[in-house]
Design brief:
single chain, 491 residues, Arc Repressor Mutant, subunit A, Aspartate Aminotransferase, domain 2
């Protein structure tokens, strides 16, 4: 056996640079025995001959052999140094199975949920027009913020977030969303998912019931499953969440998660009558409503609808907002507005569990808002998204008319996506979505967002248009048309 080759094979270049020759020899022999290259009963070269062959001191080989004898890989007898017969190593469990078993049961419960493709092509929902963001302006403000920073700004931020950013958010929400709140009610988080995780763990215990719109937002389902809450899917219609009297009697919820201004994924809008009724019933049943207002800044037909949080004084509503849709996802800054009666306890919990970072980005964002850049950017994007919405609606309307596809466009009044809903409930929208994905077009299936086992009649596709130039939309819809027609005609 070529022992120089053995050492090269079983130790990496990095290891050889870090290890002494004795250690490299130990590692190589140990790995060769473990992997079967040196079988049980094999006799190794004597320490003198091996030292000559490798051009090293004999003591180096002696010490390596002695260490492996001590570990049980080698033994010495009259024949010399022999590879020990060891029990067969246990068979490795397949990586995916092993990784699943390593997770806690509450973590395993979310593994069956679909993982969205990490792409932004086609009609991927929730992706803003990143090329239109004023990155030079942002970079300039960020540079100024860093230049004004001191050593104090390198420490952890307040657990609730930078005061200047919270003040800016309050000012903006009062003017644009009708949210009634004070400075102390705002808590900065690392994104909507972090806000949902905090709500799930702070306001409910394992086994408590949480209502979700059916179909509904997968991220919320993940947060609630991770907290071991019992999710109850409440069906929606064209006017949003539609709970029945028996739902309140049979499944009174601790939490109610809604996206009232632009339902995710259908795009429907919760009517004012139902908003007020939901607040009244939640108050009666001592439930907390989580209002996710993720893309309400972009209202295309008529003025923005007021948030549920401000409809009724002291409404039991936790309001969630994010800058991922209005600015860019990598910013990872979102916020919560919580009721006054829980703010003290929640702030203490956040301070105990979370040491806040990214102070510079928060300070920069506060300036971005205070100086009017945020409002101007949102207004510009609202106009751009309306144009792109119009282009998509026109292309889909032509497709529906020319190919006699039984479908309707829903949720195009606001937001960054709309839904193409199939009237034939037997259409396999998941298979259709997968077929489109092979063409590079992301269009998630509505039924993929089904909550629990309760059936619903929503079959169709989510189509995000915010990041798609208007001139590209007709071509993408045409690309979809053949697969679309084939899938619907064969249903």
């Amino acid at each position: 056996m070529d022992y120089a080759l053995l050492i090269s094979r079983y130790t990496t270049e990095h290891e050889r640079q870090k290890l002494s020759m004795q250690r490299s020899l130990q590692f190589a022999l140990r790995r060769a025995i473990q992997q079967g290259s040196l079988v049980a009963g094999s006799r190794l070269l004597s320490s003198r001959i091996l030292a000559q062959e490798l051009g090293i001191a004999r003591n180096t080989v002696v010490y390596a052999y002695e260490q492996l004898v001590a570990e049980g890989f080698l033994e010495t007898n009259r024949r010399g140094t022999i590879v020990t017969k060891i029990e067969a190593m246990p068979q490795a469990v397949a990586p995916d199975i092993a990784s699943h078993r390593a997770l806690a049961k509450r973590a395993q419960s979310i593994l069956s949920l679909p993982v969205p493709p990490e792409l932004s092509s086609g009609f991927a929902p929730g992706v803003p027009a990143l090329k239109e963001f004023p990155i030079r302006l942002w970079r300039s403000l960020l540079d100024k913020t860093w230049r004004a920073s001191t050593a104090q700004h390198l420490a952890y931020a307040e657990a609730a977030g930078e005061p200047s950013l919270r003040a800016a958010i309050v000012e903006h929400l009062r003017a644009s969303r009708g949210v009634e709140c004070d400075f102390d009610q705002v808590i900065i988080t690392d994104g909507t998912q972090s806000s949902l995780d905090l709500c799930a763990h702070a306001f409910a215990d394992a086994g408590d019931k949480v209502w979700m719109e059916n179909p509904g937002y997968m991220g919320a389902q993940i947060a609630f499953k991770s907290a071991q809450l019992k999710i109850i899917g409440i069906n929606i219609d064209e006017d949003g969440l539609a709970p029945k009297t028996k739902d309140w009697l049979q499944h009174p919820p601790k939490l109610i998660y809604v996206t009232p201004s632009h339902q995710y994924p259908s795009g429907s809008i919760l009517s004012l009558e139902r908003r007020i009724a939901l607040i009244g019933a939640a108050t009666q049943h001592q439930s907390l409503i989580i209002e996710d207002d993720y893309d309400s800044e972009f209202r295309h037909d008529g003025p923005p609808l007021p948030a549920m949080q401000g409809l009724v004084k002291d409404a039991p509503v936790i309001y969630l907002g994010t800058f991922s849709k209005t600015m860019f996802p990598a910013l990872r800054i979102a916020y919560m507005v919580v009721p006054k009666n829980v703010i003290a306890a929640l702030r203490t919990m956040v301070a105990t569990l979370s040491l806040r970072g990214r102070r510079t980005e928060q300070l920069c964002l506060a300036q971005f808002i205070h100086q009017g850049h945020f409002v101007r950017h949102v207004r510009r994007m609202r106009k751009l998204y309306r144009q792109r919405r119009d282009a998509l609606v026109a292309a889909l309307s032509t497709l529906i008319a020319q190919q006699a596809i039984k479908a309707e466009i829903i949720g195009d009044q606001a937001g960054m996506h709309l839904a193409l809903r199939f009237k034939d409930h037997s259409v396999d929208d998941i298979a259709l979505s997968n077929a489109l994905l092979k063409l590079g077009i992301i269009a998630p299936a509505l039924s993929l967002h089904r909550i629990g086992s309760r059936l619903n009649t929503w079959r169709g596709l989510m189509l995000g248009y915010a990041q798609v130039p208007s001139e590209d939309i007709p071509g993408l819809v045409k690309k979809m048309s053949l697969i679309l027609a084939t899938a619907i005609s064969s249903a």
